[in-house]
Every structure is written in structure tokens, then in C-alpha cells.
Amino acid sequence: MAPIFKTLYGRLSFVLLGLVVLMGILYVALTLFTTRHYLQEVNQRLNQTLATNLVSEQVLMESGEVNYMALREVFHMLMVVNPAIEIYLLDPRGEILAFTAPPGKVKRQRISLSPIKEYLHGNPAFPILGEDPRDLRRKKIFSAAPIPATGPLQGYLYVILGGEEYDSVVSMFVGSYIFRLSSLAAAGGLAVVLMTGLIFFYILTRRLRRLTAGVEQFSRIDFSEPIPIDSSNDSKPCDEIDQLETTFRQMADRILEQMKTLRQNDALRRELVANVSHDLRTPLASLQGYIETLILKEGKLTPEEQRVYLETAARHGERLGRLVSELLELAKLDAQEIQPRLESFSMGELIQDVTQKFRLAAEKKQVQMKNHFGSDIPLALADIGLMERVLDNLLDNALRYTAAGGSITLSIEQTNGRLITRVSDTGCGIPPDEIPHIFHRFYRVKESVPVESLGTGLGLAIAKRILELHGSDIEVQSTLDVGTTFTFSLPVPPS
Length: 495
Ligand code: ADP
Hints:
Bound molecules: adenosine-5'-diphosphate
Strand content: 5-15%
Structural class: alpha+beta
Shape: rod-shaped
Largest sheet: 5 strands, antiparallel
Number of helices: 11
Distance between the termini: 71 Å
């Protein structure tokens, strides 16, 4: 199993965790900033008149001199109220004249007057931060008033408000109930978001995991088992994962189908090779046998016997030649090396030519040959050479499987814009359970004729293939001991 951070679920969870932590940090930082700002504003507003009140209460300066007595009194008074407050007396330029902080703690001698002036004049936007005399870098909220309250300016009372209580997150967290509460609420909320997200991702990735497991299993099987993926989603694909699942299932179905066809083709090919070698070997062995006998018995055979031997050898040679040329023809048709060259021709004339070829053999076998079509038959659009081959094969069969006294009829008719050709005979017929197989290569109905007059078993396969190349098909109707009819149709050329 892959380590958790290498899985999609692990990665999504880590990203979610990172986002939640980031949101938490941002929330704390933002809350800290706004809360501190808010507290400073409230504190400064509440003490806005503090310095003014103190100045009007006590005479803190007289003719530019500090009144230490009054200052101490103010200091004591404030200590009672708020020990964090510090008081500074400044001259009109901001120089610190006196202060109440412990000696040695004050690090500045002069305070910038601009925040004080902003505080005293106009409409101040609180909080205003002024310089902290005890810290060179830090700024603090303050209350300030000119001395005296009315009359010529002698200096300023500068009161630093509040201590250092909320200067750090920890002190703020400990000191502020609201901050603590909202931080805990936010942490709880984020934890809920995290948990929900993790559960949601788990559910989402579970389907992906199932699909991955199915794909892995499929790659391991030998393509003979059904696809190991639930097909219940096929009818209602909702999201991309469903679509992926459906697409994979369809793809796997096609692969299985193709594998099945490949297996069947492979089995057929094996059978074909076995048949071919058997069919080639038999006449070859006979041919060889007769020739060897002739050589061995040279001079011992009568001329009549020699003639019979030679004739038999020639017949086997001829059969061998026919088989090889038919095999080659079928291979070329399969490889589409032979492409039909379509042309318009008269099917009636072609039938007459072909029947002429067979007439002698038919007479010899006492089989009647009849052509049954009128003179107004339209032309056919096909490869005339290939059509001659189809008719040759059908007539050859009809003659072979029809006994003396029987007849063969060739007819043409036009139906639905197509030219229908029929080759019927009154021969032995084909058993119904054999009919589906007769177009297969090397398939022969054994008991139909004596072994020596058996054909190659390729004639109908060739005829079917040629018609397939014309986008057509061949059909057969047969009744045992009554006869057989082969039918095929061809297009007529556009008028
Ligand atoms: P073959 O060379 O053996 O005739 P085909 O492919 O032409 O091979 O035919 C396959 C089988 O179909 C034949 O062996 C035969 O049993 C049967 N068949 C074909 N045509 C006819 C027919 N006109 N009448 C009866 N059986 C036929």
C-alpha cells in the first residue's frame, strides 16, 4: 500500500489541514489586531478629557516652572484610580520637564508634539499613538492637555494610558475573555471544517479507490473474466468519477469483446491450418503414391492399368491445383488485395455465358439447365469477373449435388431497386442443422456426395466473401431431397 501522503486522500487531507491552520493563524492575527485597536480606541476615548480635567484641577506650572507639589498630588490621585498611568510635563517644544515614572526608566528627553497636536485639535481619529518615553521604539495611547487650560501656553500634560497588558498574544489570550472565547469558537469551527472535509474527501476518494482497484484487477486478469467494476452507476453518471467509471467499463467491455473475437479467430485460424494441411496432404499423398507405383512397376503394368493410374494421378494433381488456387484467392479476398471494380453489365448475358460453360457437364450428368428471366432485366452494378466466379461456384455445387434427371434453374428479377439472382436446383438439399455452417471455410456436408467427388469446401466461402466486398450477402433455402436455392442481390446502376 502506498504511504498516506502519496495517496490522493492523503494529499487532499494535508492541503485541507494546511488551509485550516493558515485560516486559524490569519484569524488570530486579525482578531489580535482589531481587538487591540478597539481596546486602545475605547481606552483613549474614555480618557479623552482626563488630562484636561487634571489641568483644570491643579496648577501644575507657574510662569514656566513645574509645581512639583501639585504634580505629586495628581500622581497620588491617579495611582489610586489606575497604577498603570504615567504623567509627563512637557514644555511647549516637547522637552520632558518632570514625570512620575520611576527614575532611570525614562529613556527620552523629548516627545514628538505632532500626535499631541493632532489629539488636541480638530476631530481626532482614535486611537492616536504617541511616543512612549520609557521605550524608544514603542508607541502608546495617551491623553493630553495644554497648560494652562486657557491663556498663553506654558507646556503640556502628557498622560500615557494603560500598561503593557495586551502587548503579546499570550497576555491578550489570558487577559481578554472575549478574545479567548472567540479564539476557542474559531478553533472549534475550524476543527469541524477539518473533520467534515476529511470525511467528505474520504467518501469522494473511496469511489476513486474502488475504480483504481477495479482497473488494477482488470490489468491482472487474462481478459476472460467479467469486469470487476460495479455497473450500477452506468445509467446515471453524475460526476467526472462516474463518467470515468462508465468510460472505463465500456472500454473494458470492448477489450473483452475484441479479445473474444481474437480468440475465436485464432481458433478458426488453427482449424484452418489443420484443414489446409490435411486437404493438401491427401491428394498429394495419392499423387505421390500412383507415380511411385508407376515407377516401381514399370514394365509390369498393362497399358490399360498405366492409363488408369495416370488418370487418377492427374485428377489428384488437378484437385491439388484447384485447392491451392482457391486458397490463394480467398487469402487475397481477405487481405482486400482483390477490390471489386464496379461496372454496369447485363446479368442475363453473364448467366448465359456461365451456363454455357457447364452445359456439357450437365448433359453428361443428365441434369437439365434452365434460365428463367425476360429481356427487360436492368443492368447490374458489380465487378463482372467476380460475379462470374460466384456463379461458377454456385453452378458447380448445384451440378455436383443434383442427381441425374434433376434440373438447375437460374433466374433474375428486380425488387426494390435491386437485382435478385437465384440459383436453384432439385438436388439432395442440405440438412437444416448444417445450413448455418456451409459458408465456413472447409465445411462440407460429408454424406451429400461420394468422397471422391467432394469439393474443396471453399466455394461458398469465396462466393460469400465476394458478395461481402460488394456490400451484399448470400442467402440459402434448402429442403432435404427436394432442392436448394441460393439468392443474392446486387445494386442496379443509377439511371
Ligand atoms: P464444396 O467445394 O464442398 O462444394 P462449398 O463451400 O461450395 O464446398 O459448399 C459447402 C457445402 O455445402 C458442401 O460440402 C455441400 O455439402 C453443401 N452445398 C453447397 N451447395 C449445395 C447444393 N446446391 N446442394 C446441396 N448441398 C450443397
